[in-house]
Amino acid sequence: MKLNKIDYKILDLLQDNGRISYHDLGKKVGITRQAVTRRVKKMVDTGYIRKFCVDLDHERLGRKVVAYVDIIFNKAFTVEVEKVALDFITKINGVRLANTTVGEKYITIKIYTLNMQDLHQNIRTIQNGIKDISTKTVIVNENFFTNKIITYSIN
Description:
CATH topology of the largest domain: Alpha-Beta Plaits
Distance between the termini: 20 Å
Number of domains: 2
Oligomer: single chain
């Protein structure tokens, strides 16, 4: 599927408000509700839209400490080692994302914790659960924005 100007505008509008009705979406892009429904379904089916989700305020929900933790592998970093580490990390509550890097071979995670003690416990869990690693942690001081919209529509 090749996206066109209307598809990109739909994506921009959905990023801003994932709960917008197909009727209102159609009005904003100049097509019918049925046409919007078909286009969105096709973008979901082809993987352009991976999911619809809720953007929670984790701090307001009690997870007041946000940190990035680099998991640095001291020995050979293989696909198998990476898989085992990622499988382990996904089981830790509060881990919101994980990325592997190119160049230096490590995994960076973003974790939301209740407090500093909870963060330290999670780091110890990682250090004890993944063999032959070291960690480096950066605690977020202030968050200016999250999930900033990236415009895709063609002007």
